[in-house]
User: What shape does this take?
Amino acid sequence: MTSTTTTVPSAGPVAGSRSFLSRLREGDEIARVITFLFAASVVLVTLLLVFELWQGSVLPRHKFGFNFFRTSVWDPIFDQFGALPFIFGTTVTAGVALLIAVPLGIGAAIFLAELAPARLSDTLEFFIDLLAAVPSVIYGLLGVFIVVPLMREYIQPGLKNTLGFLPLFQGPAYGVGFLTAGVVLAIMVIPYIISVSREVLLSVPRDQREAALSLGATRWESTWKVVVPFARTGIFGSIFLALARALGETMAVTMVIGNTPTISASLFSPGYSIAAVIANEFTEATGDLYLQSLIELGLVLFLLTFILNGLARLLILLTSQRGSEMSHV
Amino acid sequence: MSARLRWRKFVSGFMLTMTGVCAVVAVSVLFFILGYLVFHGGTSISWSFFTRLPAPVGEAGGGMANAIVGSAKLLMLASLFGVPIGFFGAIYLAEFSGSTTAFIVRYAADLLNGVPSIVIGIFAYSLVVLPFKHFSTLAGGFALGLMMIPITLRSTEEFLRAVPNALREAAMALGASKWKTIATVIVPAAYRGILTAILLAFARVAGETAPLLFTAFGNRFWSPGWNQPTASLPVMIFTYAIAPYEDWHRQAWAAGLVLLGLILAINIVARAILSRGIAVPRS
Assistant: This one.
């Protein structure tokens, strides 16, 4: 498939003068150069993005150094910027999101790949793809008007009454906060986990299942002890992918997290996340240090997602390669 | 049947049922979203929503005509910027490039694809807003176009590569030059796939809010030309949803319904185009 660079014309005994041939060659060269410029601009723009983020955050990097990540005072009036509450908020919300989304997503993926007949599986996958296409501001809209009241009136009081002895579920139930943001994020990333995990599970060779079943394993045992471990790396890949999405998600989180820079053991507490603080304060940031501190937060976000996406791709690639190697044997 | 076997069968049945429950829960979210939007948005959508400007703060009524036009302008600009780069870049990758260049370009595109949208906003801000000294449609279109590039590029390349080599060789054997082969044989053979890719990229950025917050910004009036801040549907939904006015909430639902309807419609059309076959003769 990759051998697309076959150059046929040079060998062809075309009736015609040399100049005709070379004109043709010239046309090809022009097409080549033009398309190359477009392709190169993709690389250029990406490099420029990294450069701008780096260059745009010089001041806080020099002034605060590593303390930027260790202090929790965010005070534009006195030019003190510590990002700890935002990093905390981003980490906690993404953690909550994964705790909910991973079991649900993998469960659904197992159903789609192992149990459902092909037509049903494809239909459900179609809905999952549509779900992944819903813009985040719509999730935010539903978060504000549906999830937040639900949390405040029912779920948070319920958790308090049953698990209230844990520090995680204490304090007043505002509705907005880490838990709500985590739940909304979970709903948002589930489609990604399902889609990728389903693909990975489907790439597990049939013999693996048949071997397990023929040894007397039940359907679940063959799935859980053979198929899932086989696809393990790819499933981890899907989780990293979801984590990267959750860390970078802006709108929905901004709308339901409460936008207060706090570090608290309670998940009911309102908080703040990296992306949310950029979204809220970027246009009103007065002074270079303030603006550049926000850009440095953007840089942090960029690096985090860069690493996670890279890892995810690697893991997914490894699994699908393993699957195709095995099925060729 | 021994007790142990019965237990194993029970566990198997139970866990498999649970996976079904997971799938139902996951998919039902889509219908919840649609249901709520149709219920809340449907009752508040009206003719004036499409034709009127936003009413002054505190007054009821008004519409989002400027945001609808603003979104259209932003998306047009984004497509004009993002689609050619993605499309021609993909042609280079699939037809001309060596493997090292292809790897670098693909890597850059994947990197760009993974960048959180808010960071794209920062980038567009420092590249377009700062030099021009004010928020503009131009900056917003640039930000959205940037997000269209990797999606268009990667899928277009895949569809071009799916065109069988026999077609290329046949065209060249007839004496067609390479660019002529590409323009008259390969691209037409893959056009369904390419169209799908472009539509999906379009639908993806149509709902993007974060990159517009500090590029296109927002505007309660018409935005003439390309060099003024402009309203857009997603940003309007955001500002209206977190505002304290009942009437604004109503309009946010209506805008949400319009936006989601548009995006889902494009998605369904795109998939329908693709499922009719990639228009490549298989045999």
Remarks:
- The mean pLDDT of chain B is 91.
- Chain B has two domains: 3-44, 50-275.
- The two ends of chain B are 52 Å apart (CA to CA).
